[in-house]
Design brief:
Blueprint: H1 5-14, E1 35-46, E2 49-60, E3 64-68, H2 75-81, E4 92-100, E5 103-104, H3 112-118, E6 119-122, H4 133-137, H5 139-143, H6 149-162, H7 166-169, H8 182-195, E7 200-204, H9 212-225, E8 230-234, H10 238-244, E9 247-252, E10 255-261, H11 262-267, H12 272-278
Parallel strand pairs: 3-8, 3-9, 6-7, 7-8
Antiparallel strand pairs: 1-2, 1-4, 4-5, 9-10
The protein binds adenosine-5'-triphosphate and magnesium ion.
Length: about 280
């Protein structure tokens, strides 16, 4: 892959996002943003294959973190670990600690249903259910026992507005979700995640199956959503990481090589491996 580094540098230089946790200038120094997602020496094995080799990082609340790195380096595995989606895979073993705020993700007595309500997930391929648009959005609410039609309608509209889809679907909520375009389906899946009011949104290559216009809409949406949610996006597209993220994590062969301010990481990486990757020397 040939990477357009000057383009990344320009875009990154244009972004003025403050470094999360940085102390503001002026008389009242801001407290450092509290970490919302924390990994401490986290290892994950698929059978004997150690896919994550002691990952430690702290992701501040209401920021966008991009995870980049070559295929197979463990990006999806790390993402899925934060809502214990890896529980569904046989022969997975983990050590270390993961936290979502004060919640100990890996503790035996952690309520996984509640964890997944707090930590929503959006996948690479839009995966709407073969149901109406409305029923897709309220699916999680129904599982949580919400029956009141009025409440379901209010929450569906609110979620569709937040996912920037309301205007396109408000007149056809009873039609099949499968008739929507790929980009609309992905925003519908985001609305479905938002309906149950998560704190965190994990997105695994959410735009890689979409055309450039639909991709741009997802990117705009991510930027809007970060005022309310902590967002982690896996992407193979470094320009996209530079456009949408405050912080970037670069992974290689199961290790976190570098995690920091996106602008800084793309313009003056601390590690040689990061520099080699972002300048397209491998990957
Ligand atoms: N369900 C699974 N069972 C066994 N091994 C797995 C499973 N999922 C992933 N792995 C292995 O774990 C390692 C990390 O995979 P992972 O899917 O997390 O990488 P990735 O960085 O998301 O890659 P990509 O960019 O291709 O999506 C790889 O060696 C992969 O083969
Ligand atoms: Mg992956």
């Amino acid at each position: 892959m040939v990477t357009d580094v000057p383009a990344i540098r320009t875009r990154v230089a244009e972004s003025n996002a403050p470094e999360p946790g940085a102390v503001a200038s002026g008389p009242a120094p801001a407290a450092p943003a509290p970490a919302h997602l924390v990994a401490e020496d986290f290892h994950l094995f698929y059978g004997t294959n150690e896919a994550l080799k002691g990952v430690s990082l702290e992701i501040p609340a209401r920021t966008v973190t991009a995870i980049i790195g070559p295929s197979g380096c463990g990006k999806s595995t790390l993402l899925r670990s934060f809502n214990r989606m890896n529980d569904l895979i046989p022969n997975v073993r983990v050590t270390g600690r993961l936290r979502v705020s004060e919640l100990d993700v890996l503790a035996r007595d952690t309520d996984v249903v509640d964890l997944r309500r707090r930590v929503g997930m959006v996948f690479q391929r839009p995966n709407p259910f073969p149901k109406s648009i409305f029923e897709n959005v309220v699916f999680g609410l129904r599982l949580l026992g919400v029956k009141d039609r009025g409440e379901l309608e209010v929450r569906a509209e609110d979620s569709l507005r937040r996912a920037a889809l309301w205007d396109e679907v408000k007149d056809r909520l009873d039609r099949s979700a499968l008739a929507l375009s790929g980009g609309q389906q992905q925003r519908l899946c985001i609305a479905r995640s938002l309906a149950i009011e998560p704190e965190v949104l994990l997105m695994d290559e959410p735009a890689s199956a979409l055309d450039p216009t639909a991709t741009a809409r997802i990117e705009e949406l991510v930027l809007e959503l970060k005022s309310r949610y902590t967002i982690v996006v896996v992407t193979h597209n470094m320009q996209q990481a530079a456009r949408i993220s405050d912080r970037t994590a670069f992974m290689l062969q199961g290790e976190l090589v570098e995690y920091g301010d996106t602008r800084r990481l793309f313009t003056s990486p601390h590690k040689r491996l990061t520099e080699d990757y972002i300048t397209g020397r491998f990957g």
